[in-house]
Amino acid sequence: MRIAIQSWLDERFGLQAIMDFLKKKTVPQHKHTIWYYSGSSILLFLAIQVITGFMLAFYYKPTLEEANKSVARIMTEVPLGWIIRSVHFWSSSFMIALVFIHLIGIWLVKSYRNPRELTWMSGVFLLIVTLGFGFTGYLLPWDDLSLSATKVGTDIPRSIPVIGAWVTKFLRGGDDVTGDTLTRFFSFHICILPIFIFLIIAVHVYLIQKQGMSLPLAVEIKKEKVREIPFWPNFIYREMIVWLILLGVVFSLAVFFPPSLDKQADLMAPAPEGIKPEWYFLFLFQTLKIFPAKILFVSGDTVAVLLIALVGVLFFFLPFIDSKPSETKGKILTLIAYAFIAYAVAMTAWSLLE
Amino acid sequence: MKLKHSLFTRRQFLSGLFGGWLGALLASFLYPVIRFVFPPTREPDQVILPFADFKDMAPNSVKNFSWGSKPGVLKKNDDGSYLVFVAVCSHLDCNVVYLPDKKKFFCACHEGWYDEQGRNIAGPPPRPLRKLVLSIEGENLIISREGFEGAPKK
Amino acid sequence: MKLRMMKKFAIKKKFLVWLLFFTFFFLLFFAQPQFSQEAKPAEQGKALKPEKSPEKIVPSPANIKEAVGIYVFLAWMWLSIIVLIYFLRLKIKEVDRLHRLGYFSGEKK
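ok -> structure tokens follow
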């Protein structure tokens, strides 16, 4: 019966080609195979975010007067609403953490080598979109902390010369953070960013399938035959184990450590003490803090933002900068990569301890 | 009675067990989703209104009040007694209006008619208007859902 | 060499599993949820009256029935995960064996 339905669909869609491809696709087994699991786990959490996001959007009202109240209603009146919101909250942190882990894995084994430059670059776009999801979603409960974090976050681009003010205006929907900012962020969060992330994921995943799984530089250099296992079903079964464990951890954390909701933001009130962005922005936040107010005749913020932007651009073009990965230049760039990771971790830790 | 051949292979058995259990786990995730997406009805059991607002009604006239998110209508009959309805048509949920000159309730959506007792008399409505229970306690008018235990006896 | 690596990995895995188990066991007994019906100051009022937003809403199960239901669900979820992982390991062993025998490379569908 199942086979009859499958062949009926296959006559029309031709999907058997996809199944054949998945069965032929192989995954190399070596010391660094564990990194291969990070990509699909990101998709798992994206799926969770979409589903819980759909549900939250049933009750959330994206206006200045109703936002906080509607979240409060979700948490108190709607049956099990607090769990759905908690899953959405924890799953977002897990997704961003996995994006970082995925990034670090690719970075250190240099998977961006020829011919995978575009996969890396589309990945950088995905990183930006994912962080955008986190940033826009954080404002939506509209409490004092998220309002202040958004004020600071949208003020930072202002330090960019020439275009800075325009970027801030675009993000805020005006000069200040108002109800318009909230509506704009909501539109980004549920409409604009999802379209972008799905389009870029399509490109990213297509490239990976077309070019096959990459081998880490260290393994490729050895030039010995690497053991490979079929993607379907061998690797998929292993991935399912990882997904099950991650699901279990996320749901347990969501039940025992649900996020609370502070009272509605007051646009006229002074900033609360100890405002901090979410953990994934802490290292950038701390970097801005350590720059002095003025360097020569330029504001410290401008220098910091331009420096970060420069690093971002270099990061984006890394496959072309690291053109000879196995030689000295490549080794130096790997050391710089380790230094960056250590820096980010140290800055995050410092920010948390303050 | 021992079978000569197995109904299924060991592989099929384990696959079935695995798939079935996975399905059960995913179905159990569905339960909170369903409860979230179908919140409980928000109709009140009772509504308390100040009698003063309704004391000076003329006979054969109506006054509206809120029954949760639906409109309610309090009708003073010719003999001075009261009738209370949920002013929602039993056909497709449009709000009905009372026409005192005709002594009928009218639903404009599909031209449904109810008499002054709320019984459906013409047009598509399949059932009469829903009645509510009224009682007057001192200063207050208490309107309750039919079958609500806390409703004071009239 | 591979066997030694596998043994070390197995020991590390066992340690992690027990650590996770004890963490959640510990949480179960010490992270008792405060029911929102008790914790919230008497502000439950009728939906008709406009409410002043409380200082901070700390989410928790609404009543004991919901709390017990959630605990039962978590226990069922973890039990299922353990069982499913057990089955998956069996399937992986089988499918790796088939791959070594060349079962899949023969398929020309």
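The beta strands of chain A are 26-28, 228-230, 261-262, 294-295, 298-299.
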